[in-house]
Every structure is written in C-alpha cells, then in structure tokens.
C-alpha cells in the first residue's frame, strides 16, 4: 500500500455522533479504503480526541447528471470519466466508532467522549497504529452489539489487522481473536460459527 494513502486524507467528516460518523470523498479517493478497514478522524485542535472506527458501508448516491446519463442510448468513456471526477455528490463512507486516543496519547477501546467535527480529515491507519488500536479485543462488544453487518465487519477487520503482523504471528492472533469471540458469543452459536468461518476462510 502506498505511503501516500496514509499521509493524505481519504475523506472528510460529513456528520457524526459518539457511535460513529459518515465521511465524504471524491471518486479518486476510494482506491484505498474498503469494508472493514480501520480509519481515524483526526481533529484539527489538540484538545479533542482522535476517533478510531471501522468502515462498515460505502455508498454512492446518484446526482442529476447520472440520472440523465443512464437514459442515454450511448455514453462515451470521456463523459463517464468527467462525471466521476466532477460529480457534485460525494461518495459516503459510514464508520462505526470503536475507540479513541486521548490527549496523553493513550488508546481506549470504548466510545469516544465526543464525536469528531464536520470536515475533520479522515485517514487510513498505518500498520503500526492498527496493531496498537486492535491489540486488545475489548472493541468486539461494540461491533457485535451494533446494528451493522457485525460478523462480516469484525472478520474483515481481523484479517486486515493480521496482515500487518509478521507471518509467524498471524495465526496466533486470529486464534486468540476467535477465542474471545467464542466467549462473547457462547449463547449465539449461529453467529459464532458464521464469524469463525469468515475468519478462517480468509
């Protein structure tokens, strides 16, 4: 993954709450982000927390020009490229908050005390930062109790996180994650089976 993907914002916050936020991006900014990736809303002021979250939805709404173009008999590649790079409606990413970094640099796996503000930049987390944020599994409860595709989201996140580790540590990381999931979902074996299949098939 290009270092530029970590150095430049992939989006900016559109709206937010303590449970998560939506971020808007241009078409040419969505090469890097994907379902399950860990991102952070970086405040512009030092007195606010960095908010970490998982991308659980990316959607592209239509705009007036697209509505006209889909009715045309033929649409040139030039028109499609022009529309994609000059569209007036942003692509939206929905993010579930799973933690935050306080003023002292400490990472907490809990909902942030306050949400990010509109237009705060959103960045992909570097591998080292991802390892720090998901080194414990306290955030599993937040994901599994949220109205999102929880098992799919958690599996995608764990597989992404495992790839940032040395190869000889990846299997143990996923096994430990599976054990924690088994503890939390001991009364819901169908969800547990789905989650474990997604993790170990990945």
Q: Any overview of this molecule?
A:
- The longest helix has 18 residues, at 167-184.
- This protein has a 6-stranded antiparallel β-barrel.
- With 202 residues, it is α+β, with helices and mostly antiparallel strands.
- A hairpin with a 2-residue loop joins strand 1 and strand 2 (20-25).
- Helix 6 (150-163) runs antiparallel to helix 7 (167-184) and helix 6 (150-163) packs parallel to helix 8.
- The two termini are 19 Å apart.
- The chain has 8 helices and 7 strands, in the order αββββααβββααααα.
- The model has no long low-confidence stretch (mean pLDDT 89).
Number of strands: 7
How many domain units?
1
Our measurement of the CA-to-CA distance between the termini, rounded to an integer number of angstroms, reads: 19 Å
Sheet having the most strands: 6 strands, antiparallel, barrel
How do the strands of the widest beta sheet line up side by side? 1-2-5-4-3-7
Q: How confident is the prediction overall: mean pLDDT?
A: 89
User: Rough shape?
Assistant: globular
Pick out the low-confidence regions: none
| Strand content range | 15-25%
Helix and strand sequence: HEEEEHHEEEHHHHH
User: Radius of gyration from the CA trace?
Assistant: 18 Å
Q: Helix share of residues?
A: 25-40%
How many helices does DSSP assign?
Answer: 8
Coarse structural class: alpha+beta
